């Protein structure tokens, strides 16, 4: 049994953030019903990276869900979703604020038919405030939150994070809000609105940098891979690539120097303690790389591990996804999709001892489960045929 088995989630989402939220709920056992417009479905189905005509992005973030089509521009389609909401525990959408209400599936609309419903809205800027009506994208949120101001090399041009941090964090905060609201419902029987956004998620991830600013009055600046309070705590160059070291204490720095056979460095006044190393980082790193550039990273990583220094390679995705530890932890799984064929997917990152999640069902084809879901909702065969004939499903 999975932890969220028996929980029904209605998914009116598209793009990245909100589908990632519902994907995580599906991985842990929730019955997630993805509602898409008839015809071409949601825009992510038409991604630029495809496998046998199927969008790789759509396949990734919609795994484990069932597929239903409904035209929300028609009263019958709205009634179908409201009927579905009566049977649901959670509803997730990522329209701009106000759009769901105009369609007839806003929080007030669905709470009226199901007061126990936990309704999650994920948008660019949230439901209130001066920017509420704006469209939001990951890049915009990274910039407005300050993240872009601290990424990249010192004195370099702005560089966004290599993964869509704002999108993914908003999805995870959505999961967090939903689970908290469900716990409250267990005690009171009352559902509620969960409202989060890309900008708030991105800002929440700056807890370290925001604190530095408040404590010092100085805005943090980009440092490449370096750390703001420790040195060396960054990437170093070997003869065949890069590796990282995390030496945030004098003891670990001495162990690093033993691994590199540079015993004189801890005795150098510029590098004798943590404060001195941080102040003289620009001199320290070239000194270290004068040694590390002379041998491949495998040699240094073996020596660093022997000395107990936290370290690791900077992997390509080919290397990361083939890493024996990632495989042992079940972070790469195999699925078979009806049209895309055999595909791989990332595994569930949280391991539960008694009710583990699993990635065991691929993303649905458009409207794949419409008939089954309509039957569950009590639509007769004749009613279903009428909905299909009129293009509502």
Verbal overview:
The chain is of the alpha/beta class and 393 residues long. The chain has two domains: 8-205 and 325-389, Crotonobetainyl-coa:carnitine coa-transferase, domain 1 (Rossmann fold), CATH 3.40.50; 233-316, formyl-coa transferase, domain 3 (2-Layer Sandwich), CATH 3.30.1540. The chain contains 17 helices and 13 strands. The protein has helices at residues 17-27, 56-61, 75-86, 99-103, 107-113, 138-145, 165-188, 198-204, 207-216, 250-259, 274-279, 281-292, 297-306, 317-320, 324-328, 370-376, 381-389; strands spanning 8-12, 31-36, 50-51, 54-55, 66-69, 90-93, 118-123, 193-197, 233-238, 241-246, 311-313, 332-337, 341-346. It has a six-stranded parallel sheet, sandwiched between helices. A hairpin with a 2-residue loop joins strand 9 and strand 10 (241-246). The mean pLDDT is 96.
Number of helices: 17
CATH class of the largest domain: Alpha Beta
What's the structural domain tally? 2
**Helices and strands, in N-to-C order?**
EHEEEHEHEHHEHHEHHEEHHHHEHHEEHH
Strand order of the largest sheet: 5-2-1-6-7-8
Globally, the shape reads elongated
């Amino acid at each position: 049994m999975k932890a969220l088995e028996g929980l029904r989630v209605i998914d009116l989402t598209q793009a990245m953030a909100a589908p990632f939220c519902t994907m995580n709920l599906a991985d842990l056992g929730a019955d997630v019903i993805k509602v898409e417009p008839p015809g071409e479905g949601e825009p992510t189905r038409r991604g630029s990276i495809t496998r046998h005509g199927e969008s790789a992005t759509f396949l990734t973030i919609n795994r484990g869900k069932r597929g239903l089509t409904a035209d929300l521009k028609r009263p019958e389609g709205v009634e179908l979703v409201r009927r579905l909401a009566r049977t649901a525990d959670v509803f997730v959408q990522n329209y701009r604020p106000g759009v769901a209400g105009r369609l007839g599936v806003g929080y007030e609309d669905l709470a009226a038919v199901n007061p126990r419903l936990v309704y999650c809205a994920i948008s660019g800027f949230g439901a209130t405030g001066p920017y509420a009506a704006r469209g939001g994208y990951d890049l915009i949120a990274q910039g407005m939150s300050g993240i872009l101001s601290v990424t990249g090399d010192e004195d370099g041009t702005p560089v966004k994070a290599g993964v869509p941090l704002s999108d993914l964090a908003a999805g995870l905060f959505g999961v967090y809000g939903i689970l908290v609201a469900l716990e409250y419902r267990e005690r009171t029987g009352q559902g509620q609105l969960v409202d989060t956004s890309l900008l708030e998620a991105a800002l929440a991830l700056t807890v370290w940098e925001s604190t530095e600013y408040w404590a010092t009055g100085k805005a943090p600046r980009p440092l490449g891979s370096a750390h703001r309070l420790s040195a060396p705590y960054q990437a170093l160059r070997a003869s065949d690539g890069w590796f990282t070291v995390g030496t945030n204490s004098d003891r670990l720095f001495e162990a690093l120097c033993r691994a590199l056979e540079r015993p004189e460095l801890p005795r150098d006044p510029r590098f004798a303690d943590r404060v001195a190393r941080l102040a003289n980082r620009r001199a320290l790193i070239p000194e270290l790389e004068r040694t590390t550039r002379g041998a491949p990273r495998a040699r240094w990583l073996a020596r660093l591990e022997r000395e107990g220094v936290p370290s690791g390679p900077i992997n390509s995705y080919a290397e990361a996804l083939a890493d024996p530890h990632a495989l042992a932890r079940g972070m790469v799984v195999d699925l078979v999709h009806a049209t895309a064929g055999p595909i791989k997917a990332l595994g569930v990152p949280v391991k539960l001892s008694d009710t583990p999640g699993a990635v065991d069902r691929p993303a649905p084809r458009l409207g794949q489960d419409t008939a089954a879901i309509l039957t569950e909702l009590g639509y007769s065969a004749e009613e279903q045929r009428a909905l299909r004939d009129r293009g509502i499903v």
